[in-house]
Amino acid sequence: MPITLPADLPAYETLTDEGVMVMGKDAAALQDIRPLKIGLLNLMPKKIQTETQFARLIGATPLQIDLHLIRMTEHQSKTTSAKHMEAFYRSFQDIEASGEKFDGLIITGAPIEHLDFRDVTYWSEMERVFAWTQTHVHSTFGVCWGGMAMINHFHGVQKHILPEKAFGCFRHETIEHGSPYLRGFADDFVMPVSRWTEMKQSEIDAASGLKTLLSSTGSGPCLVEDVAHRALYIFNHFEYDSGTLKDEYDRDISDGTPINVPMNYYPGDDPTKAPANRWRSHAHLLYGNWISEIYLTTPYEMSKIGTKITDLRRTNGPSDDTLLD
Question: Are 108 and 148 in contact (CB under 8 A)?
Fold first, then answer.
C-alpha cells in the first residue's frame, strides 16, 4: 500500500521518481481500508528535505499511511516559503483544538542543541505536545533533538555538550536482538551522526522504564524504548539522504565554521569522492518495524487511542482481513 500525500507536495514527485508507492488523497479515499494516521512535527529548517526523508521511510511498508505535516504554532520558518507552509502544514494549536488522534507521531530534530531546553522559544508548547501525545497518539518517535527533549521531559535525562561535534557514519551495535523494532537488524551497522550533544548511558540506566536498543562505542546510546510513554527516542539520523552529511560539511566549510571531515563517510575520508549510502537498508527496517508495531497494536477505533491498554494486538477491533479489505 502507498503513502498518501497531496499531489502538489514536493515529496510526491520526488518519491514517485524513486519508485516509492505514492497515492493522491482523492484516490486513497476510494480504498476501503483504514490507513494509519501519522503526524510529522517538523522542526528542521529544510522542511521540504525533511518531509521527503521521512515520507520515503514510512511509505515503504505494505500499509497505507496518511501523513499529516505539523508545525509549532508561533515559530515561523525562515528557510521554507510561507506559501508551502500555508498549503501543507497545520499548527499544533489547531491540531490540539481539533481533538483528533494519531496512530503515530514523529518529532524531528532541531538545530538548537546549544540551548538549554527551557531556553528554547517554543519549549512551553513542546511540553504541551509531549503531554498531548499521552492521550492523542498511540506511538511517538522522537528523533535527535526531538528524542533528547522527550527523554528529558519524561525522565529528566540531561543532554551534555561534546568537546567537538560527533559527525560522520558511526558503527552501531544491536543490543536488544529480540526487540520487534529491530527485526532483521545485523549485529552491527553504520548510521549517520551529526550533533554537538550526547546522552549518557549511565543516566538512561538510572531512569525507570527505559531500555537501550541500539548503541555505539563512538557516539553513545542511540535508540531507547520508553514503554510507559509508548515512545522511541533515537539520537542519530537513519533518515538522512546519501548527501546530507556532505551538505552539512560543505555548508560549514563555506561559512568558515571549524568542522572535521565526517568520519567513515567519504571513501578514504576524501571529500572529493562521492559518499556511499551504507545505512539505507537498516533505516527502512527500523521505520518499517515501527509502522508494523503500530498496525499490530493501535486500536481500530481511533477514539480509543491513548487509553490505558498495554498491548492491543488488534484484539479490540475487526480482524486484519477487515482492516485490509
Answer: no
